[in-house]
Specification:
0% strand; homodimer; 2 domains; mainly alpha; DNA-binding; Arc Repressor Mutant, subunit A; Tetracycline Repressor, domain 2
Chain lengths: 245, 245
DNA sequence: TGTACATCAGTGAACGCGCGTTCACTGATGTAC
DNA sequence: TGTACATCAGTGAACGCGCGTTCACTGATGTAC
């Protein structure tokens, strides 16, 4: 039994409910595999039905449409990535903010390299014609960035983040308003300049991962990709405000 | 007559050759529009033929296959972006390295915002099942990064780039070998640590643009997107080695 | 405990659609003598 | 300058394929009395 099926079974009474949950989990798993080999745009309910050994109309018992399957896969992928990041961050001690930051970055990269198609679904070009339904993907989709924000805010409160030099801390008023809203919405203590840098660190982390996963570096230029990424993480840590150490 | 058709006509003698070049340019233009509205994975020769007002088999006179049309569109988009970047950089005086750097970044973002689908084709998830043929996309595909590298190397030679602090300049040997190969291949003067930072600046620039274009920020969080991007560019300039100014 | 009924999973056929690509063909445009 | 021939653009039909989704249906599994 797969982990997904085990999870899906939790708290379900009747055999029918359990069988149903297991079938939904199978559909998600097969969709995942299909995604990995053929890409999101080519994801097809009929192909999933074939792999499931069932006639194509039967999957409509479990999934209302192709778009809903995509939503399930999106949520599944976000949670898988979120779990990987949480596990890596949680393995570091609570006060080791810099260690947690590095663990987060490495976990994102590792997951992306291991799951390039699912990473592409989450962070690549949007799937044409698909719009995520309101309220289904927001929570799982923000897990990583909230974890990152949490680490930086905790580090700041603990006095371990150095604010950027004054001349680099100037933020235009319209942007300051956005950043204030972020701070208020998430209950943060970090000042504007560090939030702004944090956003850059966030986008840069995913930019570096995307370039590697999407093949922008070309096949030969960088052989020491782990080293390159770790160097990037090191520099980004400095950008985020961590003092050298 | 479109610009593309004008360019395609250059140096062509006979009316037939000119008509042919104009038709190929029309096909590329229609493919571009199709791309913008339906995405790369949905790009279809039949749809292009319909828009061209011609039976589907007729386009095979001009384009050997769907994959070749994709290649044409890839090259077309790379060159369009490259032209936009060259124009923006060229508008700054030769010695204004920092200005050139900012112009490059802003031009990339502006082009991407104006052409999200083509940007996605170049920098999003790879098109499933498509592999660029060797030798067709490399040159146009490297225009922007070569421009960036040129600006940074020129600035370094002019003494306007400060190398990072010694403790941030440590590069592991395997990565140093990659960076040495880059330096030798491109005839650069910049030291390892600045090349490494330059790679991060490059990926971060596209990471920031991709987050904005692919909708990762969410619809509401940042209203002052130009300000945010300019702030990022400012910080990235510092990372690249430009002194504050 | 047994029976009548409701619920549900899965079938198979069908609808209407779009796709890439091939092929034999018609007619118009260009070229060589 | 006129004619015979070659080249090329575009047609229309066809091949075989896959897709999402609907619908009436059969049988098996569960539930209420």
């Amino acid at each position: 039994m797969t982990d997904a099926a085990t999870n899906a079974d939790a708290g379900l009474r009747t055999p029918r409910e359990r069988a149903r949950a297991r079938t939904v989990a199978d559909i998600v798993r097969l969709g995942r595999e299909h995604l990995a080999t053929h890409g999101a745009a080519a994801l097809s309910l009929r192909a999933v039905a074939r792999d499931l050994g069932v006639v194509s109309s039967a999957v409509y018992r479990y999934v209302a449409s192709r778009d809903e399957l995509l939503t399930l896969l999106l949520v599944d992928a976000y949670n898988d990535l979120g779990d990987a990041v949480d596990a890596a961050v949680g393995a570091k001690s609570e006060g080791d903010f810099s260690g947690r930051f590095h663990a987060l970055g490495l976990a994102v990269r590792e997951w992306a390299v291991r799951e390039p198609a699912r990473y592409g679904l989450l962070f690549g070009s949007p799937v044409p014609g698909y719009r995520a339904p309101a309220g289904r993907t927001e929570a799982p989709g923000t897990r990583v960035v909230y974890s990152l924000v949490g680490i930086l805010d905790d580090a700041y409160r603990a006095g371990e983040l150095a604010p950027p030099p004054a001349d680099a801390a100037v933020v235009p008023p319209a942007l300051a308003a956005d950043l204030d809203a972020v701070r208020a919405g998430l209950g943060l203590a970090v000042p504007d300049s560090l939030i702004a840098n944090g956003v850059l660190v966030w986008t840069s982390l995913f930019g570096a991962v995307s370039f590697e996963v999407f093949g922008q570096y070309g096949p030969d230029t960088f052989k020491a990709r782990e080293d390159l990424f770790e160097h990037h993480l090191h520099v980004l840590a400095g950008l985020a405000g961590f003092r050298r150490g």
